[in-house]
Amino acid sequence: MANKKLKKNMEDPLLAEFLATMTRAVIIIIGLLFVFRILGFGGLTASILAGAGITAFIIGFALRDIGENLLAGILMAF
Fold first, then answer.
1. pLDDT score of 62
2. H helices of the chain, where?
3. Residues of 27-66 as b/e, b for ≥16 C-beta within 10 angstroms?
């Protein structure tokens, strides 16, 4: 449903496809976390969320220099 609406309203079909895929992934992950909590795996859910947070922090910190260089390059181009 998100894919159809995004492709209809956006000019770039590749970006629309990417956003639809990311939306689908987020909905699936949230659904799995709810299922784990309902089945009584609250500790597992907390561990998954903590691991995802730590992983995002590490990847963000590792890619900080690349992002800064990319932004500097774009600003210098303009």
1. 87
2. 2-9, 13-38, 42-62, 64-77
3. eeeeeebeebeeeeeeeebeeeeeeeeeeeeeeeeeeeee
**Residue reference for tokens 């597992």:** 44
Tokens of 77: 């181009």
Question: Residue written as tokens 């992950």?
Answer: 29
Q: How far apart are CA 67 and CA 60, in angstroms?
A: 9
Per-residue pLDDT of the chain (78 residues; tens, 9 = 90+): 777 777 777 777 788 888 888 888 889 988 988 888 888 887 888 888 899 899 999 998 888 888 888 888 888 988
CA separation (Å) from 9 to 19, 20, 48? Answer: 12, 12, 35
